[in-house]
Design brief:
It is built from 10 helices and 16 strands. The protein is α/β, with parallel strands linked by helices and about 325 residues long. The strands form 3 sheets. Strands 3, 5, 6, 7, 8, 15 and 16 form a 7-stranded mixed β-sheet that branches. Strands 11-10-9-12-13-14 form a 6-stranded parallel β-sheet, sandwiched between helices. Helix 4 (about 160-170) links the parallel strand 9 (about 150-155) and strand 10. Helix 3 packs across helix 4 (about 160-170) and helix 3 (about 125-140) crosses helix 9.
Amino acid sequence: MKAIGYQRALPINDPESLQDIELPKPVASGKDLLVKVGAISVNPVDTKVRMRAEPAEGEYKVLGWDAVGTVEQVGDECSLFKPGDRVWYAGDLTRSGTNAEFQLVDQRIVSKAPETLSDAEAAALPLTTLTAWEMLFDRLEVDATEPKSILIIGAAGGVGSIMVQLVKRLTKLKVIGTASRPETAEWLKKLGADQVINHRNPLSEELGEESCVDYVVSLNGTEQHMEEVVKVIKPQGKFGLIDDPQEFNILPLKQKSISLHWEFMYTRSLFETADIIEQHKILAAVAGMIDEVLLQTTVGERFGKINAENLKRAHGLLESQKAKGKIVLEGF
């Protein structure tokens, strides 16, 4: 089968950073589905793993987690799907990825894809949707009935774009998103943000007051915003993040009794937690919301077919931190 992989962790402008290769087609067993990949999206985690993780000598590492595809084969312990089902998922950090024609994936982190979206439109959503949903309802334990407020830092990216929509559809929270460019600010307004502020400026100055937000979620650049986060969050508020700050001093959170919540979408699959099937349920619920026209895709860029050249372009754009929405690729 066709695939894109690498043998050494290299900068994206190196010719060998990602390569078109041929690999054996996998066979499904146990709880695994064999999925014929139709479309994928590229996430910041792809670029981070590419720069940090090297495969064993002589082997190739295949990246990619978001995918929409068709079930070709089911393992002997599968009961949720059958061959021919169109599915979507965000994958498992420890397994060979979606940058290949066929992939094995545990049925418990898969659901049927939204019927009203194309493969490319749907591929933009699984990883970011799971991250946003888990942050809101599993980590921060947002009370959907209370008219509180949430500040989403870096809201115009993939996770923020779906988080804004989920908050507006499922809660009574006021949504304040941050963006630094006119086009990303307009994007957030279209998605339903109640207020958009510029994270290039002090957050407390942009908001006009301190101790005014119940929840803060930081999606990137957390170390740059910590001082301001402490200022704007209310006493006994909740702070969540998904990125990896190089320096992270949490002592300033103490005076206001601010609770800290870190979201990592791969925790359930990485440790095969007792509730791993929650990701199947979340994706199924979101697929239903999309088909009811309650949520929209977050596609920002379409980069053509799934090959090394186009994936290099996608990685480069993500590393520039200028992406708006999600980058999708379709077909081999």
